[in-house]
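Let us work through a complete example step by step.
Step 1: write down the sequence.
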Amino acid sequence: MPWGADVREGAFERGTMPSTPGTSSSTPMYVATPRDATPRGIVIVSHTAIGPWETFIRSCCDALASRGFVAAAPDLYDVGECVFDAETRRERRGGEANRANFGARRVVDAVRAIRGSMGSSSSMKYAAVGFCLGGQVVVDVARGLAPNDDVGDAVAVASFHGVLDACALPGRAAVGCRVHVYHGDADPFTSADALRACERDLKERGVERVDVFEFEGARHAFTRPEKVTPTDIEAGYGYDENAARTSWSACASMLDDAFPSDVTIVN
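Step 2: predict the structure and record it as C-alpha cells.
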C-alpha cells in the first residue's frame, strides 16, 4: 500500500461505531483511533466503488490513525459488506439527484458522529480523503453539497484517481478548504476535459486552494498494488508505484500543514 510504512501496530486502536449520530441503526463505520495521544483531528476516508469493507480502505484508516488522526470509513452504500454487483451499486447511489445524500452528507454525518462520541462540546477539525468514487465524494464535500453549519467546513480534502466532473448541484463551497486532486493522465474514467471542468467548477464556487497533480501514464486505481493483471490494464486500471507514493506523500504533507502538531511522526 502507498502508506505501508505509516501503519504502526500498537499506535492505534481499531473499532466500529454508528455512522449516523444519535442512532444505533445505521451500518457501523470502521474507525481507527490513536492509542496514547490526543487526536490531531478527524479524517474521513471515502471508499471506492466496492465499499469500505476491504483491507485497502481500512489500512488507510490505520495509517492515518498512526499519524495521530481519528480516521473513519463510513459505508456509503449502508449495507455492511463489499458491493460487487454494478446494478446494486447504481441502485444504492440513486442517480445524480441523490448524489449529495449518498456521498457528501454521509461524510458530514460521520464527522458529527465522531464528534458526538467525544462529547457535545467537541469542535475538532476534519478533512476527507477519497479513492475512485470516493474521490468524487470528497470533492463534493469541498463544493459544500452537504449542509454543515453545525460542523463547519472541511479544512482539506484529497481525491485519489477520483471520477471527476463539473457538478450542477447547489452548495456553499468550503472556500478555505485545501483541495488536492491526484490524477493519472491515462485514466479513462476522467478525461482531461472533465478534470479541467472539475477544477474550474471548484474555483468558480470560490474554493481558493485547488492543486491538481497529474501523473504521466498513470491509469485509474494507480494506488492499488493488485491492479497489475492484463485484464486490469485492458480495463484502464493499473498500479503505478511512483504515482502512488508521490500522491500519498503529498497528501500526508497537506494534512500535516492543515493539522499542526508537536508530535513527531515516525515513518
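Step 3: interpret the result. The CA atoms of residues 227 and 233 lie 8 Å apart.
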